[in-house]
Design brief:
By secondary structure, this protein is of the alpha+beta class. The chain is built from seven helices and eight strands. It has an eight-stranded antiparallel β-sheet. The longest helix has 19 residues.
Length: about 220
């Protein structure tokens, strides 16, 4: 979906990976003093989940490959976009954030993330206009799992204060996470990371309808 054909500049932000979770925990203590990219990843996905991701991706050097946009700026951008939205507006479709994208140096292994306002309302999803495979999860959330659970798309109804009265029903939040080229990756790790990502967005955007996010998506 959103990730097809993406090309990222590789930034000089690295952390050495190990093949075990215990070693990852040792490395995670260094991330608190590392550049903004790791801070964003830890905040949006949970530092323990980033440790687990690191262990699942194996040995090598893990790089932050996205632009380093602080979390508060991401929230301001999304909330501002929602407040400018009116029925029939399509501007939001072209604007998105990739807050935490990681890759292993010298290999094609990747973790990718995405957030924007969705082109599909939950009503359109229920009507089949966004394709099949969608399942309700928690309150106000629909999820689509592809590629054996290594590609997750979630659409969350989120009412932002000060928006058009139809924003909650017609303009839901859309997030996407994907692990590429790691076929034995534990899908539960990705599901928990996606749930943490969703909770951080719901809290950061102060969704007035209070979506209920489960422990794993």
């Amino acid at each position: 979906m959103r990730f097809l054909g993406k090309v990222f500049p590789v930034l000089g932000v690295v952390v050495f990976m190990s093949s075990t979770l215990s070693s990852c925990s040792d490395e995670s203590s260094n991330r608190s003093n590392s550049p903004k990219g790791w801070s964003v990843c830890n905040e949006l996905f949970g530092s323990s989940s980033v440790d687990a991701l690191q262990g699942e991706m194996g040995s090598g050097v893990l790089r932050v490959e996205n632009s380093l946009t602080p979390v508060d700026e991401i929230m301001l951008s999304l909330s501002g976009m929602a407040r400018r939205w009116e029925p029939g507006s399509e501007l939001h479709y072209a604007i998105s954030e990739h807050p935490c994208d990681l890759g292993v140096e010298g290999r094609s292994d990747e973790f990718l993330s995405y957030v924007s306002w969705s082109a599909y309302s939950q009503q359109r999803i229920k009507a089949g206009e966004a394709g099949g495979g969608w399942q309700p999860v928690g309150k106000s959330i629909f999820v689509k799992r592809e590629e054996g659970g290594l590609h997750l798309v979630a659409v969350i109804s989120c009412k932002v204060e000060g928006t058009h009265e139809d924003q909650e029903s017609q303009l839901p939040l859309e997030i996407e996470t994907q692990v590429r080229n790691v076929p034995d990756f534990d899908v539960e790790v990705l599901r928990k990371m996606t749930a943490h990502f969703t909770r951080e967005l719901v809290d950061g955007l102060k969704c007035k309808n209070s979506p209920e996010v489960p422990g794993a998506i």
